[in-house]
Design brief:
Layout (H helix, E strand, L loop, with lengths): L1 H13 L3 E2 L8 E3 L4 E6 L5 E6 L6 E4 L5 E6 L12 E7 L2 E18 L1 H4 L8 H4 L5 E8 L16 E4 L1 H4 L4 H14 L3 E5 L13 H6 L1 H12 L22 H7 L9 E5 L9 H18 L6 E4 L15 H10 L7 E4 L16 H14 L13 E7 L2 E6 L1 H4 L3 E3 L8 E4 L5 E3 L1 E5 L2 E5 L8 E4 L9 E3 L8 E2 L11
Parallel strand pairs: 2-8, 8-11, 8-12, 9-11, 12-13, 13-14
Antiparallel strand pairs: 1-3, 3-6, 4-5, 4-7, 7-8, 9-10, 15-16, 16-21, 17-23, 18-19, 18-22, 20-21, 22-24
């Protein structure tokens, strides 16, 4: 009987040895950064960590909470080197092995529904999904969860990129990763961890919200003083729950924070569209908090502008959503961030535009230029520089570098969605024409222009771009206050 009990106890103790949920076979290990190996083992017991790229094993001791963490070096990835690696942990006669590992770059993709929007839903899905067999691109699709406190467990499975694994994966994320892979020829790992309809405050730690006067007042206290904050939190989805502060962060980002990553791609905003300064500040604080949590310096953070949508306001001159895009653009005042423009690939009557491929590619071009230093890669559309008035004409000048090879329209027609105003501050639709690297704007209803707005309405789908196919960034030349919001 004693022998049987001892045998059962040993079996139970051996069963404790476990890698943390994000560490699995088939994953991509981030090159050129320390790799944290963490998980569970018998408290006080030694855990031996071995990787086939290391000359020597390392040994750590599991703590009183049965958690262990070891850190190993990872070499740089080499172009066209897709060697499959193995890593193991061993403790008390028990062993766990991860195989089919690749050394490359790992990117986290997060946000709400337009980042979650899957490859099976995209425009021309049959043709696009025919090009999904990339065994050196690896995907991890995190399962939905919420938590009132930070947790370590997360569901999901690392898989090679195949038609089956790609179909439910983020279309923006996959196209981003595929473009990086084609240009860099190194393994690419992609983690999607987010949820549709979520608000930015759902991704910000409670302590960060509490420590900031504006964020505490606008986001945290209204939640903590409500009955919702006293509910028991489970993993079930509701459109209301995804707007609550910190619940998504605790369950979908915190469990990944020990991973070494190359950077972050983010697509979110629709749920916060009535906010301006608070949203800009909120998202910047979110970025700072994630960078602190991952502990890898100022990680690149590239995010996507919300696409045109009419929001049941048929007036084509309505601009409340444009002011939100302006608030989004201001996020990029934070270092090592950049916004990708979507104005030419939106669908004014569809909040979830199906043409996701250009967005993923633009994110990749941004990373290739900003993160990988491939300077010849154009990644920005033309950006407004200054305005010159010549009698009844307004002449728009753009930043020379962002114009790249020159201005054009994607359909050969005149540029759309320019508005001009005089001293009365009333904007009228304007005629526009490309002249070299400038655009000349005029309206018969405005004899003396003083201000110009471009694509500064709720749902313009634009055609003005540079010859690299990157759309002009929406702008306004005035600083007039926004009219009161109609919610």
């Amino acid at each position: 009987m004693v022998a049987l009990l001892c045998s059962n106890w040993i079996s139970a103790q051996q069963g404790l040895l476990k890698f943390a949920d994000p560490l699995q076979s088939n994953m991509v290990v981030q090159q050129n950064k320390p790799f944290k190996i963490w998980g569970r083992a018998v408290a006080g017991q030694a855990v031996n960590i071995k990787a086939d790229w290391l000359a020597n094993d390392i040994q750590v001791i599991a703590g009183k909470d049965s958690m262990f963490l070891g850190i190993i070096d990872v070499p740089g990835a080499k172009e066209n080197d897709f060697t499959k690696h193995q890593l193991s942990i061993e403790s008390g006669g028990d062993k766990r092995v991860l195989d089919n590992l690749l050394i490359g770059d790992l990117w986290l993709c997060s946000g709400q529904s337009n980042m979650q929007f899957s490859m099976k839903e995209i425009k021309d899905s049959a043709a696009e999904n025919a090009d999904t067999d990339y065994p050196n691109i690896r995907l991890f699709n995190a399962g939905l969860n919420f938590s009132a406190t930070p947790i370590q467990n997360i569901s999901g499975k690392w898989q090679e990129s195949t038609l089956k694994s790609v179909l439910p994966f983020s279309a923006v994320g996959f196209n981003f990763g595929k473009e990086l892979y084609k240009q860099l020829r190194i393994p690419i790992g992609l983690v999607f961890s987010g949820i549709g309809a979520s608000s930015a405050q759902a991704f910000v730690p409670e302590a960060v919200l509490a420590a900031d006067t504006m964020l505490n007042r606008v986001y945290l206290q209204p939640y903590l003083s409500s009955d919702k904050s006293k509910e028991k939190i489970d993993g079930g989805f509701s459109f209301e729950k995804v707007t609550r502060p910190f619940l998504v962060l605790n369950a979908l980002i915190n469990p990944l924070a020990n991973l070494s990553i190359k950077g972050i791609c983010w697509y979110q905003g629709e749920s916060n569209r009535h906010e301006r300064k608070s949203y800009t500040h909120l998202t910047q604080e979110m970025i700072k908090s994630w960078r602190q949590e991952f502990g890898q310096g100022d990680l690149p953070f590239y995010y996507v502008q919300v696409a045109p949508f009419f929001y049941d306001v048929p007036d084509s001159s309505a601009a409340d959503y444009a002011f939100f895009r302006e608030a989004q653009e201001n996020i990029s005042q934070l270092n090592n961030t950049e916004m990708v423009v979507t104005m030419d690939v939106g669908e004014s009557r569809d909040l979830h535009p199906k043409n996701k491929k250009p967005i993923g590619i633009r994110l990749a071009k941004t990373a290739l230029n900003r993160t990988y230093g491939q300077l010849p890669v154009a990644y920005q559309g033309p950006r407004y520089a200054y305005l010159r008035i010549d009698r009844n004409q307004a002449i728009i000048y753009f930043d020379n570098e962002s114009v790249a090879s020159g201005l054009q329209t994607n359909n050969g027609k005149a540029p759309l969605h320019f508005f001009v105003a005089g001293k009365d501050r009333k904007f009228y639709p304007a005629n526009a024409a490309i002249s070299g690297n400038t655009v000349i704007v005029s309206s018969s209803q405005v004899k003396q222009p003083v201000a110009v707005r471009y694509a500064f309405t709720n749902f313009p789908v634009t055609n003005l771009e540079n010859k690299e196919g990157l759309p002009v960034v929406p702008f306004r030349t005035d600083d007039w206050p926004e009219p009161p919001l109609k919610k």
